[in-house]
């Protein structure tokens, strides 16, 4: 106001950079930026000089050298003749598969516990409180180690499943036996579960740089198509309901569409299960799910679910009590009130902190190193780093990959968040 | 910008490391203490005893070097390192040298910018299994689960061995010897593989040592020895020649007990040079002329160190084998001290 007219009109002087409030903030910002840039340049220069002084180069060519080591759990074909890059991919997939199952199980358990904690049943709600407080107040690493030690020390050894000739003659049973109609064997090394096999499937497609399992992808396509058709059926039912007031019966159509094509597909491809069988030292056939994987998923699920439960509880409690009372007054039952009135509004509060929990869980998978789970940290940041001695490169690459995964997860979840946000109409 | 910050953090850590590189010998003298990278605990080679004093075959070499450089074998600080952390600890200057069953290989010598200055134990990789498994050869291990320490050469040898013999295995990677023992004893793996000397040392600490056998196959060459940073040649010479001094001492029959007497009575010119009676061998590498004499007086000669820690009669019970002196058909051979 008056200030503007008071400013002398005789142009710009250098001292104004310090004494004039209009320019001072720019001066400070520029100075800080320059200092920061200098500090970064100094540190970078030091790294380069020190690497040179030690005769080490900075490049990523080691990724294309032969890895030479073996990995226990591999979701894509890998042998010790593969490159370090291939080992990185195997590790990355191992990270992602733990994160995937962890996020799903943690969400299911967390939502359940969060709702049950609000239950009017005194025992149920207190039990859930105990669970939440216990798991979120003990470090995750201890839970991982505990689950692993429990699994590997309590379960029997593979040799306990063996029946020797003398035992058969004496009619004795072996010390341990398989469960679920002789299809699953839990040893102190891992769980052996049946593997799906296809007699007449389309097999695999070799793309040169990778092979596609066509059986798997054919099933994925069929299931995705079924789900899409089911959504169309439900959508048209909703349209009918809105125009006529009556909802057509759809449950048998949904069941048919969801399950029949998949079943037909499985029969056509000659689906059968390959059962694990004790051979030599270990069970062979079927799929070996190592205890390191199981322990990691269990611990991550239980730990993260405790946090998710609190987020869900907070979200539900954020909805005014009047909302549910109004719904009850309209004659809606509690289940439908939760589904139609409370949850859609609570989700707006729940989703943003849930994103951080998913990110935490994904990054926490790197604790798998404690139980020798060879994830990205175990392959690229563990064995590859050690065998090639490229600490800087491996660490930078690993950080970049974790950053990318986290950014992808948060952008997907942010997109989902915008779809559940309150829409101004 | 965020990315630059972590570049910076990395750079900051390497910077601190860089300062320690000037001249290790001068650093050690100025500090008055030798920092020796050792095993986290391998009985017979390098492990703290019940009262916290480090003892073992590798530990004694560290003590000999401390005696040679500082004149006092007790001025050593032992920093336990795992297979994963050992080379980084050395490169970053956290330790002055590494004496912990590290195998000399081409890529470690070249790519990791390290120098292996000697071989204090010629070893090879073996397998240990429980006796009741009924296995008599490593080639019968088809389908077995094998415990393996990560970050080691044995990890790569294992993969090669099973591939060459066209048999399969399931690896269980562990961080160090104690974790491997726990898994092996709990039955989480059928076999444990590492250097044969390491297996013998592990077996010695097991409560039921007689129930475990080390299979006859030795599947690799594992020359183990002290490691220093590449480029610090003077320090490399100090470590190398202190070790050779211990070998020459055994060759000439000089022990911790008789070193003082030999120094006054000897007529052998090489022994005189070794013990600093004549010439200036110590001064030539920046040490006291009596450096080697101090080393021998502190820990004894190579043969004494061997038999005291891992030799026949100890719980580890290893024969000299390849590690006998060249005069007795072994590979231990010191160049002439002149």
Please outline what is shown here.
The complex is a heterodimer of chains A (425) and B (338). By secondary structure, chain A is mainly alpha-helical.
Write structural notes for this entry.
The complex is a heterodimer of chains A (425) and B (338). Helix content of chain A is 64%, strand content 7%. Chain A is mostly helical. Chain A has three domains: 14-41, no CATH class; 66-145 and 287-425, MetI-like (MetI-like fold, Orthogonal Bundle), CATH 1.10.3720; 195-274. By secondary structure, chain B is an alpha/beta fold. In chain B, helix 3 (57-70) packs across helix 9, helix 3 packs antiparallel against helix 13 and helix 9 crosses helix 13 (291-299). The interface between A and B is large, with 45 and 53 residues.
Tell me which oligomeric state these chains represent: heterodimer
Number of strands of chain B: 14
CATH superfamily of the largest domain in chain A: MetI-like
- As a whole number of angstroms, the C-alpha radius of gyration of chain B is 21 Å
Q: Largest sheet of chain A, order of strands side by side?
A: 1-2-9
Q: How much is the average pLDDT of chain B?
A: 87
How do the strands and helices of this protein lay out in sequence?
The complex is a heterodimer of chains A (425) and B (338).
Chain A: H1 2-6, H2 16-19, H3 21-53, H4 84-116, H5 122-136, H6 140-154, H7 165-170, E1 185-186, E2 190-193, E3 195-198, E4 204-206, E5 211-213, H8 214-244, H9 251-268, E6 271-274, E7 277-279, E8 282-284, E9 287-290, H10 291-317, H11 321-329, H12 334-364, H13 376-388, H14 391-420
Antiparallel strand pairs in A: 1-2, 2-9, 3-6, 4-5, 7-8
Chain B: H1 2-19, H2 24-31, E1 34-39, E2 47-48, E3 54-55, H3 57-70, E4 76-81, H4 86-91, E5 97-98, H5 106-110, E6 114-116, E7 121-123, E8 125-130, E9 144-149, H6 153-164, E10 169-174, H7 177-185, E11 191-195, H8 196-205, E12 212-214, E13 222-224, E14 227-229, H9 233-251, H10 259-265, H11 269-274, H12 281-284, H13 291-299, H14 302-309
Parallel strand pairs in B: 1-4, 1-5, 9-10, 9-11
Antiparallel strand pairs in B: 2-3, 6-14, 7-13, 8-11, 8-12
Helix pairs in contact in B: 3-9, 3-13, 9-13
